[in-house]
Specification:
Distance between the termini: 72 Å
Mean pLDDT: 87
Low-confidence stretches: none
Helix content: 55-70%
GO molecular function: transferase activity
InterPro entries: Glycosyl_transferase_4, PNAcMuramoyl-5peptid_Trfase_CS
Shape: globular
Protein name: MraY family glycosyltransferase
EC number: 2.7.8.-
Keywords: Cell membrane, Membrane, Transferase, Transmembrane, Transmembrane helix
Strand content: under 5%
Number of strands: 0
Number of helices: 14
Order of helices and strands: HHHHHHHHHHHHHH
Number of domains: 1
Amino acid sequence: MKILIVIVPFLIALALGRTIIPYILFISYKKRLFDPLDPRKFHQQIIPRLGGVAFAPVQSCLFILSVVVLYKVNFVPLGLNTVEIFPMFTLLLCGMVILFLVGLADDLVSVNHRWKFYAQIFVASFFPLSGLWINDLYGIFFITYLPLWAGVPLTIFAVVLIINAVNLIDGIDGLCSGLIMVGCIFLGVLFTYYGAWLHAIFAFITAGVLVSFFYYNVFGAFKRKRRIFMGDTGSLTLGYSIAFLSISFAMNNDDIKPFSEGAIVTAFSTLIVPVFDVSRVLIVRWREKQPLFKPDRNHLHHKFLRSGMSHHQAMISILLLALFFCLFNFLAVHYISNNIVVLCDILIWLGFIGVWNLVESRKKKLREQKMQFLRD
């Protein structure tokens, strides 16, 4: 029966998303609030990009209601150290509100990328301020305990990196929402297993509202319903949410969950694909002396599309890759050291990208030969 604590909020979030998003679609078309057309983008028709407006309100309001009901009904004795845990969630919701407003402003009138970056650093500092920070590397690089002066800047850096990685990977239908949905379900199950009910509730609420959005984002056009994008309003708050869940799981704090040797590797396995991909893209831009934040078509989903995959095939392939890293790391940390698992992750990623570069190069060469043959 305890499983109802996470199942019911998940279903309510799914229903709320299913109810709210059609209204957002209606208002977007009524007020002509569309994603601007750009030669760099794949879509060449008008599509609203305010789907992310549904995320933060549903996450925040439903989470607060769930916690109040849980405490009033006393369905399960949580045994939480509320002085330790509640500040974390309070500042999480504050940060989500700030990013929601920044993202909404960017989707409607555009915001300078520097101001968005400053806002991300500001809200990232909320985590250490609330007592949530990476305080243990669990033996990675042979480091265990991290002092405050090292853990706090590392946490802020990690949060900003995750937010931007999630934002930048939002390139094809269903990819960003699918990755965060997989990550939230994965971490939600683990939090449930360890009895961290508040974190599990938040994870499943986030996953629930994303299921509804995923449907409209991916299948809307094929079911005679209008599609919708999440925009920066959605990607910024989702990045912040998954960063909170990952760092919470990685933190060595008995008030959150019991100690587990592979916590940090397991926690961040959900983010390997977006973080590794954005890191690879930035390295390529730096090596080619291109502006680091200039948009291009060098992300993983672009590579898949150039190889001949459809949008759906590329999206599903990347989601399966992310799921592979989650399951591989979850199982591997029980048998080998964290350092070896991290090394395996890097080698698998590099091998995968290397093979795909060869495939892409071969296909490009074949296309050039075909064009040359037709010209001759």
